[in-house]
Structures are given as structure tokens and as C-alpha cells.
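Subject: sequence -> C-alpha cells, single chain

Hey, anyone have a minute? Need the predicted structure for the following. Not urgent.
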Amino acid sequence: MSKVLITGGSGLVGQRLTQRLQQKGYEVVHLGRTASTAPVLTYAWDINKGKIDPNAFEEVAHVVHLAGAGVADKAWSLSRKQEIMNSRVKGTELLLDAMDYQAKKPKTLIAASAIGFYGNAGMALCTEESAAGPDFLADVCKAWEAAAAPADAYTRRCTVRIGIVLSEKGGALPKMMLPFKLFSGSVLGSGKQMMSWIHLDDLCDMIIYLIENEHCQGAYNAVAPLPVAHYSFMKALGHTMKRPLWMWVPGFALKLVLGEMAATVLASQFVSNEKIQQAGFRFEYENVYKALKHLLQKG
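Reply:
Had a minute. Here:
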């Protein structure tokens, strides 16, 4: 099998994607802040200094670009917002410069983005052709995707607009589970905001599908077939955990505590995945009850 280079390989998605690729016989290497040989051969890059190990691209057929500072890891100060933007835009520009320099260029670039591209869209169905939203996260996604666009001149590019990733090992789900463990499960805001989610394994398998199917090109929404309202999701989570749903936390209270970052939980995004299904990909976890049951039985 061919060789795949992953940026952000030490993150939640990158680790699981590495496992899935290796199970299929791919050779996988990473780009990271520090060079190492275990658990995966990792070449160093420094986005701020604009440095990247050119050996990272030797015999690489496919690049999966996931790297970016965590959106919900810290409060959104002006400096943090700049870090979120720069980690994506400057990182992508550095990666593309290195790819373009190669005599034998990678055949495929799978570039991460997010459904934050669509902003707070309410109940409007968002497809890959929908306009970008007007808020900070939408601006980040637009700039992130624009930075990857020059790769079209020399490779096949697929942009993956990722929804809320469900995993028992990290991301949003453990944070949503914690109040239930304390018997204080809560609905945030009105509860009517739509959540477009995806099981981690389906996301990784979708990325592999895009690598392996050369007819795929352009933007694809990485979300399960059945988005749900936030209230319905929390009800399903409580049911799966056998814990009650007790409280409602009003949106204004979240905004007081989280400021602009409250948009990460209050924005409504009803996102279609019809394009990737028409391309032939099939989801294993189509509904939230099946996904949560599988994850919590493992966790």
C-alpha cells in the first residue's frame, strides 16, 4: 500500500486515522512539533518559524492535513483567536510550499475544515454549495480553505468540513458526559439548535474513502445522515448513560461565562451529507443512539 503523511497526527482524529490506515496496510508518517520514531515516525515542522523537514515527503502519495489549535481549548482572547487562525492558515501555507517543492508531488491532499464554515444557520439545510457564515469560526474556515486552494494546481484536493466528532476518548463527548456523571445533565440554550455530528470511526473511514476514490474532489461535509436538535442529543446521551436530564442553562448565561466562544455550543447547523453518500460512501453509525451505544459500551 502507499504512504500517507498526516499533520495533527497526535490529535484525536489523527491517532484513530493512523490506526485505521495501518490496519489497511498503509505506511503512515506524521508531521509534528518534535521529531520522534515512536509510536509513529514523526518529522518536525515549526509553523511560526516556517521550517519543515523535507524528508517528510519522501515517497508520500497522500497528505491528510488536520493540524490546528483547538477551538474550544481556551477562552477566546484576541491573542487566542489569532493563534487559532494562524495555526491553520500559516500551517497550510507552509505545508503547500513544501508539497509544491517536491519533484514528485503527492497525488492527494485531504484538507480539514469544519461545519463552522456555515455559521449559525438556524434550520436552513447547509450543503457544500451554501454560503459561508459571518462569524469568527466561519472566517477561520474560509481562510483555512483558501490557504489550501493553490494545491489544485498540482494535486487532487478534497476539503472535509467536519461536524461534531463523537468519541469516548476526547473532543466534545466527554465534556457533555461529565454533568450526567454528576447527576446534573443539562440542556444548553434553547435546546432547539441543530447538532450535525459524526462518529470518529465514520470520519476516519470517510477520509480513507476520499484517499482511495480518485473521482472524489472538492468539499464534502463530514456529518452523519441524521442531525438532531441539541435537546434530543442530550436526551439520548442521558438515556444511554442511564442518567436524568435535569437542567436548562439559558443562552445568555453561557454568553456571560464563555463570551464569544458560546457560539461553539449555541450555533445551529443542519448540515447535509448527501454529496459524500452520492459519491458512494456509507456510514456505519447513522443515528445518534447507535453511535452513543457503541461508544459508551467501549468507554
